[in-house]
Please model this.
Amino acid sequence: MTPTDAPTPTIRTVLCPVDFSTLSDRELDVAVELCETFGARLVLHHNRDLAPPAWTRAWEWEQTHALAEDVEARADQHMNELLARIPKSVAAEAVISRGLVVPVLLHLVDQLPADLLVLGSHGWATEEHASVADRIIESCPCPVLTIRDCQGEAPCLRLRPADGGVPVLLVPTDFSDSGDRAVRYAFDLARQLSVRLHLLHVAPKDDAGKLEASRGRLEAMVPADLAGRVDSSVETGRVTDALVASALRLEPGVIVMGRHARGVVRRFFTHDHAQDMLHRARCPVWFAA
Model:
C-alpha cells in the first residue's frame, strides 16, 4: 500500500441531519468541530416526515392539517435556534424537506454534494426493521460519521491535540477490500491532522503462526511518511467484543472502519461487525466510503 493508493478525504461540505432531539445537540457539536478542523461548510437538514393526508380518515384531516402547520412553524424555529449556535467562523445553511427520510437524505447527499455525513443513531435494528442509520450507512455514497444515543455523558469527537494529548484514531481492519479502504482513508486523515493511528486486527483463533503473520501484515501497511505515528496490535476472540475492549483501553477520538454493504435478504444471515460497532461504540464511528 502506497500513499498514492489512498483516496483523499478532502472535506468541503458536511451534512448534518437533525431531528431536534437531545442527540441533535451532540450531532451539531461534532459537525461544528469537523467544519472548524477542515474549513468546511455545514449544511443542517431536517425532514418533516409527516404522513400524507390520504392516509388519514376524512374527519381527521382538519386536525392533521392544523398539526402540520404547527409542526412546520416549530421546525423553522428550532432550526434557527441551531443556526444561531454555530460559530461565525463556520459557513452554515439549513435545508428543511418533507418525504421518506432515507431517500430524501441520500438525494441531498448527491445534490450538495456532501463529503461527509454526520448521523445520529437512536437505536438497534431488528431482523424485521433496519434503523434509519443502518439503511443510510448501507447506501450512502460518501463517508458517514455516526454518533450513538447513549445514556449519560458520552465521549466527544477528538481530532485535535488538547490537554489530554494527541488524539488516537482506532482503525480496525479484517484485511478485506472494505477494511483496506478504511485504512487508506485513515492514513490520509493522519496526513491532514495531528493524530496517531492504531491499526487493529482481530484473529478468530489463538494460532501463533496466524497472529505473527497478521502483525507483519499490519506493519507492512504503514506508509513511510507516517512511520512513528502508527501503532498496531492483533487481538483474539469475538470481533466486536475485542473492538469494544480496545476502544475502552485506547479511548480513541474516533473509530475509523469499513462498512460491508448488504441487502435486506443478507440481513437475516450475515453478522455485520460494522453494524455492531454502530450500536456499541461509545465514541463516534467514522465509516469510510
Summary: The mean pLDDT is 82.
